[in-house]
Amino acid sequence: MTFLPVCEPLLGGNELEYVTDAVATGWISSSGKYVTAFEQAFAAYCGVRHGIAVCNGTVALHLSLVVLGIGPGDEVIIPDFTMMASALAVCYTGALPVFADAERGTWNVSPAAVAEKITPRTKAVMAVHIFGNPCDMDALRSLCDARGIILMEDAAEAHGATLHGVKAGALSLIAAFSFFANKNITTGEGGMVITDDDELASRCRYFKNLCFPLNAPRTYLHADIGFNYRMSNLHAAIGLAQTEKADDYKAMRVTNGSIYRARLSEIPGVLLQQDQAGSENVHWMNGLCLTPEYGRTRDVLVDHLRVHGVDTRLFFNGMHRQPALLRYGCDCGGEYPVSDMLADHGFYLPSASSLRPEDIHRVCDLIASFRA
Question: Active-site residues (predicted)?
Fold first, then answer.
């Protein structure tokens, strides 16, 4: 019985060649040609002019918030159903994350729920494209533009996803990506901020490198509190090779997602993520949520799959359930029915780009045959 992990990286291009070149030439730190080449290639792939490579996706979010001027006294509305990093990045600035429930269909943040959470202190809305599925950016942009609120993207899970033909990351003023090992494009650990705004890009480069001046000699006098968020040339070498194969890897994920959906949609009691019109989901993870009609609980099914060699991961717990955020001072009261449903009954399945159709059918057969 072959074990199927939730995800594993696909290194099917020039990764070894580029990393070997970086090592052989001695350019292994944050200086070196691959950092710039990766930034330019990934920005071009996303359809924007600037890419700023950093050491992970969480700091990409933090850096984005810093250059937007987010700080103490500000509020940033984020999805309740998201990875904890979205909230933590806001906390790092001293601002307050405010939570909005998800849509039952797309599992993305609900624009109606966002509208209810806007206050005079709201400085930004962070749209998180959950599992590679683009948010309703049209509705969010209308909300934000009408009130002078910044719209930004947490696109950590959405490399290559599109809405009306525009790629994730190019749908707002500034966006953050992650290149963790399970992402559609990976550097092992890494992240990037992308933007079309020249001033924001310059501020990102300034703050990510300890606030050394960008266009002046180093005197080791620092005017601002900066961060060491640099990406190494070794990681960037992997990232460049991955970006060269981005369309191939995206096609693999989309194909796998289509097979999963076709099979799982036939099983009573299985609730799947839905796409909005005009969007292209890149299926970073293929998840499902069980309803009572399935006849067994989520945890029992997860155990059954594990016994049969299929790895899974539970969905995120909502931000309103996080003890750390309650202690930080967030308002964790209120009702989040969709987020709670997903957290209590949802999980995701093996989703690697290299997954074979027969692997997917094996997983779906196990789920279908186990229904009570």
Answer: 183 (proton acceptor)
Same domain, 55 and 120: yes
Residues 212 and 192 grouped into a single domain: yes
Task: Render the burial of 327-348: b for 16+ CB within 10 Å, e for the rest.
Answer: eeebebeeebebbbbbbbbbbb
How far is Cα 251 from Cα 248, in angstroms, rounded to an integer?
5
Query: Which residues are bridge partners to 191 per DSSP?
Result: 54, 178
pLDDT-derived band at 84 (thresholds 50, 70, 90) equals: very high
What domain range includes position 345? Answer: 247-370
The per-residue pLDDT for range 224-238, each reduced to its tens digit, is: 999 999 999 999 999
Query: Which one of 117, 183, 208, 245 is the catalytic residue?
Result: 183
Residue whose token pair is 């959906």: 261
Residue 3 lies in a domain: no
Q: Are 134 and 87 in contact (CB under 8 A)?
A: no
173 close to 195: Cβ distance less than 8 angstroms: yes
CA 185 – CA 358 distance, rounded (Å): 23
Active site residue 33: no
DSSP secondary structure letters along 196-258: S-HHHHHHHHHHHBTT--SSS---S--SS---B-BPPHHHHHHHHHHHHTHHHHHHHHHHHHH
How many domains does the chain divide into? 2
φ, ψ (nearest 5 deg) of residue 7: -160, 155
DSSP state of 296: S
Same domain for 256 and 220: no
Give the position of tokens 């969010």. Answer: 140
3 to 231, 245, 257, 312, 346: CA distances (angstroms): 33, 26, 20, 11, 21
Q: How confident is the model at residue 1 (pLDDT cuts 50, 70, 90)?
A: confident
Taking only the tens place, the pLDDT of each residue in 133-176 is 999 999 999 999 999 999 999 999 999 999 999 999 999 999 99
Instruction: Read off the CATH number of the domain in which 325 is found.
Output: 3.90.1150.10
Task: In the chain, count H helices and then E strands.
Answer: 13, 14
Closest CA to 38 of 205, 185, 238, 193: 238
DSSP per-residue letters across 36-89: HHHHHHHHHHHT-SEEEEES-HHHHHHHHHHHTT--TT-EEEEESSS-HHHHHH
